[in-house]
Amino acid sequence: MLSNYEKLDSYQNELILNLNSSENRSFENNSLFGSSREFSLLSIDKHLVFTIFTTIIIGALVLLTAIGNLFVMIAIWNDRYLRIPQNYLIFSLAFADLMVSCTVMPMGALYVFKGEWTLGTVLCDVWTSLDVLCCTASILHLLAIAVDRYWSVTNVDYIHKRSPFRILTLIAFTWIVAIIVSIPPIFGWKDDNFEHRVLIAKLCIPSQHIGYQIFATFATFYGPVTIILLLYWRIYQAR
């Protein structure tokens, strides 16, 4: 049998051990909570810095693109020495790029900022169609400029026949083709997953219908680029 003193001493030792164990668990819990909170704050800070940095870069690109193309248009419009038929193509090209900076890039910046598409199917259709329209118009204007230069080099009479009407007709043809390429998805040439992709997956990209993809990529990139390369090769040979 233990004496009363021995029992009391044993009880005190157990109490001290329990207190130490509780303090250790409390310290560990506080450490884990503190580490988790610090990690969360660090993640938020990194995301905030990335968002601010991306917004500044995209905003600067939008502003510079708009100002640069606007200056080109103003220069051609105001200077009578620059207001010649062949520069009408440059003016129209600058207008197409100005449309990109004023309509396509701001909505694209919002899309990047949010990380998902939240504007619905109608605006997704409008945005992607404007994107295809402006980009197609830009590429086709480069093709029109190449055609104009090719005719100037290979046909001496063309320089004298290069009238505003001819160039404006070429510009009109360029915009008509760009419109024809860009509007089919609005009238239903879409893949079956379009609404699910926009409303559920929150993604907004041009129509993924295989037929439209073949048509659009050939009309807006492979076809024009191939012809441009051939024309400049012929211009190089003619010199």
User: What are the low-pLDDT stretches, counting only 5+ consecutive residues below 50?
Assistant: 4-8, 26-36
Q: What helical percentage do the residues reach?
A: over 70%
What characteristic shape results from the CA principal axes? globular
Cα-to-Cα separation, first versus last residue: 118 Å
In percent terms, what proportion of residues is strand?
Answer: under 5%
Going by CATH, the architecture would be Up-down Bundle
Quick one: CATH class?
Answer: Mainly Alpha
- Average residue pLDDT: 82
How many helical elements?
A: 7
The domain count comes to: 1
* CATH fold-level name: Rhopdopsin 7-helix transmembrane proteins
Q: Give the number of DSSP strands.
A: 0
- Largest sheet: number of strands, sense, barrel closure: none
- Oligomer category: single chain
GO molecular function: G protein-coupled receptor activity
Transmembrane segments: 48-76, 88-114, 126-147, 167-189, 209-233
Protein name: 5-hydroxytryptamine receptor 2A-like protein
Pfam family, one: 7tm_1
Question: What tags apply to this protein structure?
Answer:
mainly alpha; G protein-coupled receptor activity; Rhopdopsin 7-helix transmembrane proteins; 239 residues
Verbal overview:
The chain has 7 helices and no strands. The protein has helices spanning 4-78, 85-114, 120-154, 156-161, 164-182, 194-199, 210-238. The longest helix is centred in the N-terminal third of the chain and has 75 residues, at 4-78. One of its GO terms (cellular component) is plasma membrane. It is found in: Cell membrane. The chain crosses the membrane at residues 48-76, 88-114, 126-147, 167-189, 209-233. Belongs to the G-protein coupled receptor 1 family.
